[in-house]
Every structure is written in C-alpha cells, then in structure tokens.
Amino acid sequence: MEPQVTGQFAVVTGASSGIGYELARELVSRGFDLLICADDNDIERAARELGGNVTPVQVDLASFDGVEKLYAKIKGLNRQVDAICINAGVGHSGAFVESDLKEDLNLINLNVTSAVHLAKRVAVDMVSRGAGRILLTSSIAATMPGPFNAVYHASKAFIQSFSEAIRDELKDTGVTVTALMPGATETEFFTRAGMVDTPVGQAEKDDPAQVAREGIDAMLAGKDHVVAGSVKNKLQTAAAKVMPETAKAAASRKQNQPR
Questions:
Q1: For position 186, what pLDDT does the model report?
Q2: Portion of the chain with pLDDT greater than 70, in percent
Q3: What is the pLDDT of residue 6?
Q4: Neighbours of 41 (CB within 10 A)
Q5: Distances in Å between the alpha carbon of 220 and those of 10, 54, 89, 140?
Q6: What is the per-residue pLDDT across 64-78, written as a single tens digit (0 to 9) for each?
Q7: Low pLDDT (below 70) residues in the chain
Q8: What is the chain written as a DSSP string?
Q9: Using CA atoms, how far apart are residues 97 and 148, in angstroms rounded to an integer?
Q10: Beta bridge pairs of residue 9
Q11: Residues designated as active site
C-alpha cells in the first residue's frame, strides 16, 4: 500500500545517523513527508524511529548509478520535491602521501560528485515548477585548508562555492539554495574518518539536533548560508575571512594532526 500523502515532501541524504538523521527528524516535526537514504541498512531503523510518512532507500551515492537509482525512486513516488537536504558525506584523514587513493577518490565521489549530480537532477525539476528549497551540507572546514584532512576540507570548499554560485543563478526562479556550515559536531564522523586521536576529535562538540534545527530554519527562510552550532564556529569563520591561507593551514594542522 502506498503511504498516504499528508504534507510537503522532502528528501534527506545521509540520514541514517548524525546531522542527516536530525535534519530528517526536524522536517518530520514540521509536517513533511520524507524520502531518506543512506548506504547502510540502518536507514530502515531510522525510518521506523522517525515515524510519520517516511520512505527509506538504501543506496550508495558514491556511484553514478546510485544517484540515478535514488532519483528514480524520488520520481516513482510521484511527489514534487519541496525541499532537499543534500547531506551525505564522509571524512578521511591522514597524511596525503600516505592515505589510500581509493578512499580519497571515494570521498570526492560522495562529497562532491554525487552532490552535483543530485542537485542537477532535482534543481531542474524545481526550476520548471518555479519553487523549491535546496540545503547543501558544507562545513566551516570550507573556509580553511586542512592539512592531514586535505581532501575533506577541499571537498567542503567546493560545496560552499558551488552552493553560493547556483544560488545566484537561481535567484529569480523561485528556488533557493542554502549552505549549512557546522563545526565539529557530536556524530560518528570522527570515528569513521579515523580522527579520534586528533585534537578536534577529542574536543567538545556541538549537538547535531541544534545544527539541524538551525539548518532547516535557514533553508525554509531562504538564507544563503548558516554557520550552525556554537559561537566558536561563528568566530572561527569570521577570523578565516581575514587570515592568510598559510596561517589558516597552520591552525588547522594543529587540530587535524594525530597526537
């Protein structure tokens, strides 16, 4: 039996845990029906926990076919996408000359390529309809080089630039684009990225529910970006605007380098 249509419809990627799960939870609390996806079977559990009208999809967005499979599922529901949170991402830390090339390229495929691919598919539909909200999960990492986390920081710098650029392109279409810029957040990210033994991995972190709430607020308000979480994130982002790149890289190294 098809789920009953009750409200606006949104898509959230990377929604089995962390910020993505909290983005989904926030949208459900505001009356949205959802399609959520992740590459692990925890997405089924997440859908049950979220309640409401939530369709889970297990798919690997790091592949071209995975993004196309997700888009086909979206189209198959015969729902217009009122909002999409393109959040799926992965970290991979360590010295660049020592890190595994396949992991570096997988990070780029998920964090960058899949975001462009999915945004292209959904934005075309939104523009043809003249309405829609797009939220891209960037990071305060986008504002600085990241020694010992070089590929991840670069991927978020891409997302930040991409978000601001297509926002300007779409400004007269009825479609808004918002970049969510969290700092270090209490999720599984640091364990999965191999960053538990780094200063940033061991430091106090922000609440993912707060980050998600601020992100959804900004998206629904049509803002260009939001630096979510602690005041420290906002101060760090402000400082990054005036610091030279070499100084930012040195500061970032102190946070990312394993002890």
A1: 87
A2: 98
A3: 57
A4: 11
A5: 12, 20, 22, 21
A6: 999 999 999 999 999
A7: 1-6
A8: -PPPP-S-EEEEES-SSHHHHHHHHHHHHTT-EEEEEESSTHHHHHHHHH-SSEEEEE--TTSHHHHHHHHHHHHHTT---SEEEE-------S-TTTS-HHHHHHHHIIIIIHHHHHHHHHHHHHHHHT-EEEEEE--GGGGS--TTSHHHHHHHHHHHHHHHHHHHHTTTTTEEEEEEE--SBSSSHHHHTT-TTSHHHHS--B-HHHHHHHHHHHHHHT-SEEE-S-HHHHHHHHHHTTS-HHHHHHHHHHHHS--
A9: 10
A10: 33
A11: 152, 156
Query: Domain map of the chain by residue range?
Result: 9-256
Q: Residue 205's pLDDT is what?
A: 87
CATH class of residue range 9-256: alpha beta
